[in-house]
Design a protein that fits this description.
The protein is of the alpha+beta class and 424 residues long. 68% of the residues lie in helices and 11% in strands. The protein has 11 helices and 7 strands. Strand 4 and strand 5 form a beta hairpin.
Length: 424
């Protein structure tokens, strides 16, 4: 009975912990909690069968330990977490490292090897779990969530390192179970090993943070690129203005000569040609927001240079609370993907860009001709050649403004729809 109570306490905290560490949950919090609880009930029933099969507490422990890892860990990766499996493995292996640490501390303090258990062991389990769970949930989780979402690549190696750390601790835990007594030296070595584990995880999460900074640097490079585009555009406009002022006297002389000869038809034709030339010098403006206008002008020019026919319908102003930084990020990534998609098509290439504002909602729609066979995973387009951060940047901005993003391809046309909820 004592063993079953100990196991029940373990399972309850497995259920709670795995719900808390699901930083990118697959379902709503309520549904995730129900799935996790069902997993806990299923595992407890298995433990009842094992403990009442008279195989002995020691053997039951060596069976229950790996079963808990596979059942609860598998449930987390497959049904609770919506992250890439490698990212999910990082979180669940880190949790099970904490689990083995709690086991070892209780073993060292009570000299019971965390076996059948008694009231002291039960209280230690509850206290130690809460001592880690409460600071994690209320202090560390929000910060870890930001780092976790910014981790765009290289998480496979980090996850393998975390899993290997858990594997080593598992071997140590099994060895610990077979010792008749725990000497002071052994406990000291055990604590050094767990201190080393903590240092490893600090380094891992530092690496995750740097990975997030890398994504931010990529975004800054995008903004720098289109800032330079805007500066070049202003320089070109200034040069055209200087040329117009310089040539204005000569144009007046020509018009005066037409008037002197009473050639009104010639003067009109010359003025029409002059007006057409001047319009070509002026960069087309799409909207009053300078940041969005610069990005739109840059990509429309790039599209036209690649033989892409562009249709625009831009109807929005500066009355919404979307920062220029976010606006550039989402527009640049959407339009860059659209241009790249058109370039891969042989034959007619078309793009349509629609941006409109309805009350506190900003709607962005971009469609473009595309090649057949675009791969989708969970509704998101996936590149065959590399894992880009464009789609993830679009999703991040949409999430920031409580928005929604839809991607779909039909009849050779790829469409991206973005809805941002703003405060007008």
């Amino acid at each position: 009975m004592n063993t079953l109570i100990t196991n029940l306490i373990n399972n309850v905290f497995h259920v709670i912990w795995l719900c808390c560490i699901a930083l990118e949950p697959k379902h709503s919090p309520k549904k995730n909690a129900l799935i996790s609880a069902a997993c806990g009930v299923f595992f407890e029933l298995l433990m009842l069968l094992i403990f009442y099969s008279n195989i002995g507490d020691s053997r039951a422990y060596f069976i229950a330990y790996p079963m808990a890892v596979f059942i609860f860990g598998g449930n987390f990766i497959l049904f609770l977490s919506d992250s890439h499996p490698a990212k999910s493995l990082l979180l669940v292996s880190a949790y099970f490292c904490l689990w083995t640490f709690i086991y070892s501390v209780i073993s060292a303090v009570t000299q019971t090897y965390a076996g059948a258990g008694n009231a002291v062991i039960w209280m230690l389990r509850i206290v130690l779990n809460l001592a880690f769970l409460l600071p994690f949930q209320f202090l560390l989780r929000p910060r870890l969530l930001r780092m976790y979402r910014n981790m765009k690549s290289d998480y496979g190696v980090i996850s393998l390192l975390s899993f290997f750390m858990f594997f080593m601790l598992t071997v140590l835990q099994f060895y610990n179970q077979r010792r008749a007594s725990l000497s002071v030296l052994y406990v000291f070595i055990l604590m050094l090993i767990y201190l080393f584990m903590m240092i490893i995880y600090v380094v891992l999460f530092r690496f995750i943070m740097l990975s997030g900074y890398k994504a931010q640097v990529n975004e800054m490079q995008i903004h720098e690129k289109y800032l330079m585009e805007q500066i070049e555009s202003y320089k070109e406009m200034e040069q055209n203005a200087r040329q117009t002022r310089h040539d204005f006297r000569h144009h007046n002389l020509v018009i005066m000569e037409f008037v002197r000869n009473r050639d009104c038809e010639g003067a009109m034709k010359y003025l029409e040609e002059y007006e057409e030339k001047e319009e070509q010098k002026v960069r087309r403006s799409y909207c009053s927001n300078s940041a969005a206008d610069c990005v739109l002008a840059a990509f429309v020019r790039k599209a036209e240079q690649n033989g892409i026919q562009v249709e625009t319908d831009i109807r929005f102003w500066n009355a919404f609370q979307v920062s220029d930084f976010d606006l550039v990020s989402i527009l640049a990534n959407i339009l860059e993907n659209a241009v790249n998609g058109c370039v891969q098509v042989t034959g007619k290439r078309e793009m349509k860009i629609v941006i409109s504002q309805k009350g506190s909602k900003l709607i962005i729609l971009c469609s473009n001709t595309c090649a057949d066979g675009i791969l989708f995973k969970k509704g998101l387009p996936k590149s065959r050649h590399r894992e880009g951060v464009g789609v993830e940047s679009i999703l991040a901005v949409a999430e920031k403004y409580n928005g929604d993003v839809n991607f779909f391809a039909e009849n050779g046309v790829f469409t991206c729809q973005v809805l941002l909820h703003t405060m007008a």
